[in-house]
Amino acid sequence: MVINGYQGTGSVTQGRARTVNGNLFTCDGGRSRVAAVGVQTDSAGNQWTVPSENQFLTAQQAPDLYNECSGVTPSDLSQVDLDAIPVVEIDADGEIITGYVFADNYFELYINGKLIGVDSVPFTPFNSNIVKFRVKRPYDIGVKLVDWEENLGLGSEDNRGKSFHAGDGGFIASFSDGTVTSNQWFAQTFYTSPIYDLSCLKEQNQLRDSSSCFAGGTDDGESAYAVHWPLPENWQLAAFDYRHWPQASTYSEDDIGVNNKKAYMNFREKFAGAGATFIWSSNVVLDNQVLLKYRVE
Prior knowledge:
The protein is mainly β. The protein has one domain (2-296). It has helices at residues 253-256, 262-265, and strands at residues 2-3, 6-7, 11-14, 18-21, 37-41, 47-50, 64-66, 88-89, 95-103, 106-111, 114-118, 128-135, 139-146, 156-159, 162-166, 171-175, 186-195, 202-204, 207-209, 217-218, 225-228, 249-251, 278-280, 287-296. A seven-stranded antiparallel β-sheet has the order 3-21-17-24-13-10-11, with no helix packed on it.
């Protein structure tokens, strides 16, 4: 596709999306940002769900590690009852693995194509989750990540004194078998916004590179572009070949800004302390829907 300087494989939309669900989630006390879902239509008539199609309302939510909305607020791991976490069975003769997950903002976790659980808070306040599953090695991890947006289709939120400020993402996880998030995982972008100058977005091989694009805030963001790519069929399955995807980019705790997030800091020994690092695609600010894949041998 060639449009306004963009020469790539994605579909371009411009302007605010039409809201189809005004809010997926409300936290008691009004502490949550509105987690709405919208639809945009490109010039070919294709419809794109923003920020992402998701299973928040229909799938099993992952158990809370820390979630102030549900009143689960342990100060450390000694207050977490690990025996109460249900085990999702994949292989009856497999090993029980415990995983600790923190996502900014939302995740859906698959093991060998089976949905283990979805994030219990789609947008904010920041939370963390714990999962257990029984599986045999080797096994495949698939994660859908969504950096939610307040301005649907415009990839932005009211923040830092600007009506349209690009938000950032971030994902970190560790598992009791020693598996941790790192640059050995694979990450691909499927929705990026806001883009104000389409010529800044480059594609080389499988890399969808928005590193040259403006990633700050503005008070005039209604005309922003978004670029969308369709999710590949059966991407969750272990048989899906993702080796052509770029490797995940890593980010520091300061990059993601977690030093004041109790959902992370109260259990830091199970995240960075376990050797895990924050990962995302090559642009943790503009890339709003990202898929991760990793094979545990």
